[in-house]
């Protein structure tokens, strides 16, 4: 295939733009800002799970407190009823003995319940402090994650701007190239990553292999408008004064 040297030289511009697009795509995949967001999301989820676990504990303790308070109140009402009966003086000797015995049992039962209630309330107080601490850590994690997301979004926006600029540059170069030449370039690039490169100091700019003397001699004898390709990687070789021919 024959293409005028100035148009062949445009392939170097196209290869440079495509290389930049490749770098942009790679950076998207390994964006440090995204890695930071992912790390902070995991940290936030850990703190959220911890806060939920403490919240569940608090709910359980609150339920236990209500139950114990209800039992204490029931015992007190029974004590008040028995005391009222004693005060009224309407019970016989046998009933008096039974009521006094029951009052003793009720007092012991109430004491046990109140001790249990105090213990649960102390545990609840400690869990409430844990919940406040977990909530504070969660809030901090969410703030850190939001800041990291903003940095990630800004980095992605910068990449979008760079990619848009490269796409425009590429379109401008592609518009100048013959369709057949572009097809060869795109096919080579799809297979090997680089479609065209400068032949510089007898070395292929794509695979970086130095061509032997026989190949260099053959290329030197080839007319400038004839498309030449690297015998090693197949990239289109663009010849200039730097090629060492």
Please provide a written account of the structure:
The chain is mostly helical and 245 residues long. Helices cover 76% and strands 5% of the residues. It has five helices and four strands. β1 (196-200) and β2 form a beta hairpin. α1 packs antiparallel against α3 (93-174) and α2 (32-88) packs antiparallel against α3 (93-174). The protein starts with a helix and ends in a 6-residue tail after the last strand.
Quaternary structure: single chain
Tally the helices: 5
Poorly predicted parts: none
Q: Tell me about the largest β-sheet.
A: 4 strands, mixed
Proportion in helices: over 70%
Rg (CA only): 42 Å
- End-to-end C-alpha gap: 20 Å
- The strand line-up of the biggest sheet is 2-1-4-3
Task: Please outline the helices and strands.
Layout: H1 5-29, H2 32-88, H3 93-174, H4 179-192, E1 196-200, E2 203-204, H5 213-221, E3 228-229, E4 236-239
Parallel strand pairs: 1-4
Antiparallel strand pairs: 1-2, 3-4
Helix pairs in contact: 1-3, 2-3
């Amino acid at each position: 295939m024959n293409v005028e040297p100035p148009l062949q030289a445009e392939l170097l511009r196209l290869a440079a733009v495509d290389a930049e697009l490749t770098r942009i795509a790679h950076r998207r995949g390994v964006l440090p800002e995204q890695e930071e967001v992912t790390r902070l999301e995991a940290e936030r989820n850990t703190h959220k799970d911890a806060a939920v676990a403490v919240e569940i504990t608090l709910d359980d303790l609150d339920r236990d407190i209500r139950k114990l308070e209800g039992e204490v109140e029931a015992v007190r009402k029974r004590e008040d009823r028995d005391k009222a009966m004693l005060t009224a003086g309407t019970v016989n000797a046998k009933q008096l003995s039974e009521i006094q015995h029951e009052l003793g049992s009720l007092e012991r039962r109430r004491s046990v319940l109140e001790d249990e209630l105090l213990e649960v309330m102390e545990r609840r107080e400690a869990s409430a402090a844990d919940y406040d601490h977990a909530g504070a850590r969660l809030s901090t994690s969410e703030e850190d994650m939001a800041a990291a997301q903003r940095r990630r979004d800004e980095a992605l926006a910068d990449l979008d701007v760079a990619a848009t600029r490269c796409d425009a540059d590429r379109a401008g170069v592609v518009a100048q190239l013959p369709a057949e030449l572009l097809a060869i370039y795109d096919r080579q690039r799809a297979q090997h990553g680089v479609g065209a490169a400068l032949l510089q100091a007898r070395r292929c700019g794509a695979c970086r292999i130095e061509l032997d003397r026989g190949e260099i001699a053959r290329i030197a004898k080839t007319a400038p408008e004839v498309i030449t390709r690297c015998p090693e990687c197949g990239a289109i070789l663009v010849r200039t004064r730097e090629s060492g021919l």
